[in-house]
Amino acid sequence: MNTQVKIFSGTSSQYLAKKIASHYGMPLGKSTIHRFSDGEMQPSFDESVRGCNVFIVQSTFTPGDNIIELLLMIDAAKRASANQVIVVTPYFGYARQDRKVASRVSLGAKLIANILTASGADRVVTMDLHAGQIQGFFDIPLDHLDASSIFIPYLKSLKLDNLCIASPDMGGSPRARKYARFLDSADLAVIDKHREKANVVSSMKVIGNVQGKNVVLVDDLVDTAGTLTKAAEVLLDEGAISVRAVCTHAVLSGSAYETIAKSKLEELVVTDTIPIKQPAEKIKVLTVATLLAQAIFKIHNLESVSSLFI
User: Fold this and answer.
1) Of these residues, 18, 110, 193, 264, which one is catalytic?
2) What are the tens digits of pLDDT across the range 201-257?
3) DSSP for residue 120
4) Does residue 193 have an active-site annotation?
5) pTM above the 0.85 mark?
6) Residue 54 half-sphere exposure toward CB, CA atoms < 13 A
7) 57, 20 in Cβ contact below 8 A?
8) Distance between terminal CA atoms of the chain?
């Protein structure tokens, strides 16, 4: 008997899960989140999952209830005799806590990996982790998808002359180099930045020639947008013709929308791993639903997921 696929979603990712299920060619599974008067959650599946490969779509952005809800859904699926429970978390929250940067701090990315495993997840699918080494934090299979397969065709469609790919920090240079390679060997630049504290950049210096170039900043996420908008100013001061940015995860906290609107960025291109909170003229959203649906198909049919990478 063939194992059946069923796709479910937590509360925060319903908007994306519906598109994924549609691209897969099936309806989104029915589930309910019961809430007690004090806010405690009790998820339940409203259809049988016995013997099924259950895919649960839920990004773990704030609030923390999104993580708790996901863990409870995993546990419910395991207790309902699912064959496998595969967590599809397009945005893996707490990924910025991938190493100890000071004494007596938590290693949040490792902790989240541990509790996903402890809750009963058999596999995890995610996109553009903040640091590649986070893959090693998991003791279960992890499929790390890459949004470059979405962004690169879009950038090619713009037909920009004198293209230069830039990383907003030294750590992102391998990502920028990859984009440059697939964009007809575009030029490469890196911004050396110094932070006084989290989310606050004190200085920036461009490494590379951006004179007369159309520059594309590439990053895994955009939070307050302070780094990107300041980088755009620095690049333009160095002689760039235009600056736009592509970032997979649109965290966009605080006054980020206002910051982007007032910035010198031509546009900010993001994906829908996190929902956009408000419409913005400079923000363009590309969907990851097709890519994730293809990944679900390949995982279920025991095919190689690497064919989805550029």
Assistant:
1) 193
2) 567 889 999 999 999 999 999 999 998 999 999 999 999 999 999 999 999 999 999
3) T
4) yes
5) yes
6) 32
7) yes
8) 35
Q: Exposed, middle or buried: residue 277 (CB in 10 Å: 0-12, 13-18, 19+)?
A: exposed
307 backbone dihedrals φ, ψ, rounded to 5°: -65, -15
Q: Where are the domains of the chain?
A: 5-146+289-308, 148-286
Has domain 5-146+289-308 been given CATH number 3.40.50.2020?
A: yes
Listed in sequence order, the DSSP H helices in 11-81 are 14-24, 65-79
Looking at this protein, which amino acid is placed at residue 258? E
- Environment class of residue 81 by beta-carbon count within 10 Å: exposed (0-12), middle (13-18) or buried (19+)? exposed
CA–CA distance, 52 with 24 (Å, rounded to integer): 16
Distance from C-alpha of 86 to C-alpha of 17, rounded to nearest angstrom: 14
Burial 38-59 (b: 16+ CB within 10 A, else e): eeebebebeeebeebbbbbbbb
The single-letter code of the amino acid at 132 is G
